[in-house]
Amino acid sequence: MAEVVESSEQLKHLARDRALRGNTYRNLNIPGLRVERADFDGAIFERVTFGGAELEGGDLSRTTWNQVDLRRAQLHDTVVSRAALTDCDLTEVGWTGAVLEHDTFERVQLPNVDFEGAKLSGCRFVGCRLSKARLRGAVLVRCSFSDPTPNAAADLMNSDFSGAVLIDCEMKGASFIRADFSGALLVRCNFTTAMLSGARTEGARFLDCNFLGADIPDGMRRIP
User: Fold this and answer.
1) E strands, 10-83, where?
2) Alpha carbon distance 158, 18 (integer Å)
3) What is the pTM (predicted TM-score) of this model?
4) Residue 99: which H helix or E strand, with range?
5) What's the CA gap between 155 and 189, in Å, rounded?
């Protein structure tokens, strides 16, 4: 039976019993929380601080996150499917090797997030900040980056997509100023009106991508 968890002692007891799924975690402040291969499937997190948490290899599928502080948390090799995150701070979160599918991020702070080698499919980033995000060697399929705020742009400045593969991704109007796409493969991605000034594109391949109205570096003008 699902519980409302509002104390660190209650959470730790549930972790020992491997009974973390489906609960609501509310008003908790547990920096440095460590749960090996935690199964939080279907859980709800509200106004929670788990800064520096170690949750590697866990299952965070079908979770809902509202006003959660996960700064510098380690979420390597986790599975995150159909999760919804709103107004959260995930600055410098380590998400290497993770699998994210059909997740929605709204107004989430993700600067310096590390998605190296991760696989993202059908993920939506709305009004998020991903400046200096590291996506080296990541695979992104049908992901979108947008900001509905008037005169705003999805912030991926100085992000690192080197060696990544992006297929059917939507980046209309996004800011990739000084981003690194060196050695990346991009197929059918929409960069209309995007800003790519100062971006590195050495060895990158852009196949059937749309750059209509985009601000692109000189080197990209020679791409067929």
Assistant:
1) 24-26, 44-46, 64-66, 79-81
2) 40
3) 0.94
4) strand 99-101
5) 17
